[in-house]
Structure formats: C-alpha cells, structure tokens
Amino acid sequence: GQSLEQPSEVTAVEGAIVQINCTYQTSGFYGLSWYQQHDGGAPTFLSYNGLDGLEETGRFSSFLSRSDSYGYLLLQELQMKDSASYFCAVKGGNQGGKLIFGQGTELSVKP
Amino acid sequence: NAGVTQTPKFRVLKTGQSMTLLCAQDMNHEYMYWYRQDPGMGLRLIHYSVGEGTTAKGEVPDGYNVSRLKKQNFLLGLESAAPSQTSVYFCASSSKSGGAVTGELFFGEGSRLTVL
Predict the structure, then answer these.
(1) How many Å separate Cα A98 from the centre of its chain?
(2) Do B100 and A97 touch (CB under 8 A)?
(3) Structure letter (DSSP) for residue B30
(4) Is B22 an interface residue toward A (CB < 8 Å)?
C-alpha cells in the first residue's frame, strides 16, 4: 500500500519562503503531485515530479528525491492568498491515474 | 467551460436512507474518481473508473456503489446511509494521456453530505 506523511500545520509571514515536506512509502512509485485547497473548496493541481530534481512554476517549486522517498513544496514571496491546505499525493499504481493523498498541511500566512 | 460539476452540493439524510451523487465532466476525460474528505484528513479514494462501463474499488469502498454508464458521468450511490458517511465528497477526472501521466486531476466543488 501507500502512505504519506506531511506536517499538519505551518505558519509563515508574508513575503517569506516556506517549505512543506512530504515523505512517502509506496509499493511502487509513479510520481509525486501537489495540490492546493482553499477553505474546503475544490483541490487544484500545483505540480508534479516524476523524476528527481526541482520543478519550478512561478513562485512555487517542487522537489523530489526518489532514493529518500521524500519531496517538498517550496513557496516563495508568500502572499496572504497562499493561506490554504496543501496536499502531496502519489499515484496509486501505473494504471488509472488514481492518486493517494497525504493528510494535508494547513499553511497560515500572517501579515 | 464547466469542467467537473457535482450535484447536489448539499444534502441531509436520515440513517438508512439512500441517495445518489452525480458527477458530470465536459472535458472528454477517460478517468473519473470519487473521493471523500473528512475534517483534518486528506482525500480518500472511494471508487474510480478507467472508462465507460468499468469501475474499481479504491481505499474506502464499503457502503458505496458506483456506475459509469456514460463517459461523461460518474454516479456515487449510498444504499443505506450511516452517520459515518457524513463527509464532503469530491469527484475528479483526468485524461488518460495527460493528467493520468502527470498526476493532474480536475476536481468538482464538492458535495456536502450529512447523515443524521
């Protein structure tokens, strides 16, 4: 089976940089994704890492180390609107595209 | 562009009642999923479908049934609702050649179900 661990809460100030870590255990690894969810609304896709290294998309970057079963989401130049829950997720197999999600990290951005 | 639409958005049931949640997507995606989300927890996969007429169990399938008679629709049924099924239910879809490879799912806005 698959399991993921990420911190339950993170607090940071506006303009700062924050890193949200995710460690996983899987029977087979097919990629790590990150999602953002505001106030219980629809989760939205942020990034995907299939191979080791850093993927950058604007203020957000995501990193993966398959040998360490570890990844992180890096948010730079934090804005108040970044306050949300962030989920890492691994593919639940190489068929069907289904994802298994971590329990989520609630990010609070303070002025 | 509607994306993924869920109906109803809110519903209150009594224990033992049955209901069906409807998910519709207009992106011609092959794959569709039903997740539930409980407070302080991530999304847990209930059932999923890789194509019209096919369904499969996810992490927490007990107490639910699904059907995918048309490519664009994925129905989630509760035959005899229990208070433990009080949750927010999210439907999602992805394309076989795109999102299923890159881990990008498109989610609906959720259906909030309370079972008394």
Answers:
(1) 16
(2) yes
(3) S
(4) no
